[in-house]
């Protein structure tokens, strides 16, 4: 602590260079924290612990290819199956293209059974009204609260994939344990079939609830074998695997994020190393004077390393602060449009990782030029006086 004043004075000798370096570090740490947190959020979405008993049966060729609805009859007859329903992503928007949320056309009878971990609290009377009303829909509480919907309200959706603009009546609102699970709307698949002729008897996938998680592999193997010679063969997979494949349709997000992170860290190391090398080179004489006054090489090395670490910590702390503010903006600004981000937050592990990484960069970028400086003969350093 007795050298702290000396470290601070030396660090801010060139205020402009120090401030610019701290800003660069802060922005870089902010980018790394946000990108890694987005990746963690998406991976968490595709690793839902509640989905261990759910299987998605889709077309073998692509998620976008359709299957015959009659496949559901065979699926429901399997001994492992508790419930099954056809499910079709509708992709409609509400009033404005920016009002995008998850909305599905579904065979409604099994929705509550299949998603019992998500649809936790609901009115049985409301659900019966939904089953009776071909133009009805059910929505999650968070989604309803966002748009001010109540039971009985009409929700006009504009189709972006299918040529239909349904006007749906809210017949029920459910609650869940997690806000992210209250961001969906379901309406009758029959309405989609009646409005879009080429969807009659067709569906995007089947969602299947297996009685016991241990029986999931056996069902998957049997289902795909049964439909292997059909015109539309199937690929059955766990719900988490399906979600992961759905995300991969947007590209290999994990590889992209990791590549950007490595590029940012490399730039951080270069910039910090350049800053510290310049700062130490300008102080060759000062280092020699310290040693002439009786400071040991290790003491001088410690002072120089402390400067590098403090510089990195200032930038890291600033970046963590920006990331914390950015997480709030992402949650409020994008969470409503992208359901996976409704619970977005920066994990503590990511913050600690960023802090440790900046400290490590501070040490790495300072160690070599500092070691060279203290190893230089005192006489060579004093000649610059």
Number of helices: 14
Estimate the helix proportion, in percent: 40-55%
Largest sheet strand order: 4-7-8-6-9-5-3-11-1-12
Strand content: 15-25%
Shape, please? elongated
Low-pLDDT windows of residues? none
Order of helices and strands: HHEEHEEEHHEHEEEHEEHEHHHHHH
- Mean pLDDT across every amino acid position: 82
Structural class: alpha+beta
Gyration radius over CA = 30 Å
Largest sheet: 10 strands, mixed
Task: Give the key terms.
2 domains, alpha+beta, 52% helix, 10-stranded mixed β-sheet, 12 strands, 385 residues, two-stranded antiparallel ribbon, 14 helices
Entry summary:
The protein is an alpha+beta fold and 385 residues long. The chain has 14 helices and twelve strands.
Q: How would you characterize the overall build of this protein?
A:
The chain has 385 residues and is α+β, with helices and mostly antiparallel strands. It has two domains: 4-45 and 252-382, no CATH class; 66-231, no CATH class. Helix content is 52%, strand content 16%. It is built from 14 helices and twelve strands. The radius of gyration is 30 Å and the shape is elongated.
